[in-house]
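Query structure, 43 tokens:
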């Protein structure tokens, strides 16, 4: 099982076509990508 760690700008690439969107979409639709963690900025 793979785990992907995204910050919010990487996650936006899934919804907005820009440089890097193809890579993000391939990762999210991969049968190996089972877990995605979103990094958040705190405090």
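Result returned for the query:
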């Amino acid at each position: 099982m793979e785990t992907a760690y995204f910050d919010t700008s990487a996650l936006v690439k899934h919804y907005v076509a820009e440089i890097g969107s193809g890579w993000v979409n391939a990762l999210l639709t991969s049968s190996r990508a089972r877990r995605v963690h979103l990094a958040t900025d705190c405090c």
